[in-house]
Design a protein that fits this description.
mainly alpha
Amino acid sequence: METNLYTLLPEIVLLLAALAAMLLGMLKNDRLRASAQILALLGLLAAFGLATGFLPGIPAGLVSPLGQFVSVLTAAAGFMAILVAWDMPSTDNPSETDKHYRAEFYSMLLFSLAGVSMMGKVNDLIWMFMALELVSIPTYILVATGRGSIQAQESAIKYFFLGALAAAIFLFGFSYLYGFAGDTRLASIGTTLMTAINAHEVPPLATIGIALAIIGIAYKIAAVPMHFYAADVYQGAATPVTAFLAFAPKAAGFVALIQILGLTQWEFPGLGGQSLIAMLTVLAVLTMTVGNTLALMQRNIKRILAYSSIAHTGYMLVGLVVGPTLIGGDASRDGIAATLFYLVSYAVVNLGVFACLIYLQGKPDSAEEVEDLSGISKAHPWTALGMTICLLSLIGMPLTFGFWGKLYLIQSAFSAGHSWLAIIMVINAAIAAAYYLRIIAAMYLRDPWLPIVPRKSIPVGIAAVTCSVGVILLGVFPQFILQWTRVLTLK
């Protein structure tokens, strides 16, 4: 599919909104600077309308199903992320510095979201690299500026340098793919690759290129062994930034992996087939196991959620091992559809957990440890209920959105003959229940540890309620998302 500016209308809107928000940050009037968050919401609503076709502008059939899926998901999740980050940086004790960079904060969010939205539409290696970096570079700034602590500065430096290393690795892999095909266009690389696979004449150059690209992109999704930064960055960043980091880079990374692996149409013979499948399998097993094991050892809530995020990356990698059902099918047989379904469920549930946590952080550095949530069900029963619903969904309890996400991944693994991989996933899901239930037990079974002062923010409350209710509604009626992720074109 050739590039057409009409296909990029949602991303163009997001970029224009980001530039406008940045200009607002240069004004002297604090009220005008604070309006950047309203502008961000309007930009995301416009992008959502264009992506869904509610607003005219994109001719029918011009955007691939995968491109439309990513744009719609990005706009919807981005809208909730803005609500979660409302009045960020915190205005509980506003300083001149806080007022100065508030607008730039929302500008960086929009720039990163534009990069995520582009990932489903890339048709060139150079474009893919630029989109991945557009996702990443603003997040380095968000981590550094979202919180005025030394810990945040340390996290930002660590995140930046490891991100630069990962970018070098996958760009090195892209250079191998270019050297193999003599072209940077994905369609051309895919055609050359399939011709070589059918002739059983694939040079090691192509296999090395794909392997390096996978390893480099593994940093974006926090897969083992490229996961070391996650816990420190999650803990050091401001909580709304942490919520954003748990979704945006992961979504962009998985879509990039689907695009790269889609070059082979999941026909690996002659391409070091067993070695690539083994590599993805080892990544999946190590990522989910290491993530869950390390989460069991944590007391800090954001570190728990960081390692939990790593574990969920491992679950989604199971879908990439399975690959698509080439004859078509739903998420119970198609690994890619199951992965995308899980990505939607994780976005909703993750934002719900962080929205509840942010609501409880009316004072700086509050609600950081599991003990800080002791007994909050008595003083804040609805917040405790919302967080419990989202945590149960992360466990995969029936009648929640997360249950269907795990079920479809497990079913797809069984249907493709990866029975032992599905069993390992089930065992890991059981292990994960321990640390999620520990948080729930603290809220309901312990006496209050410290008084919690909630954040007086209506948008944060709206985000928490919307996500919590969405977890239940989509858990009871998952068909809408299931149909949405069905038989997506990988072109």
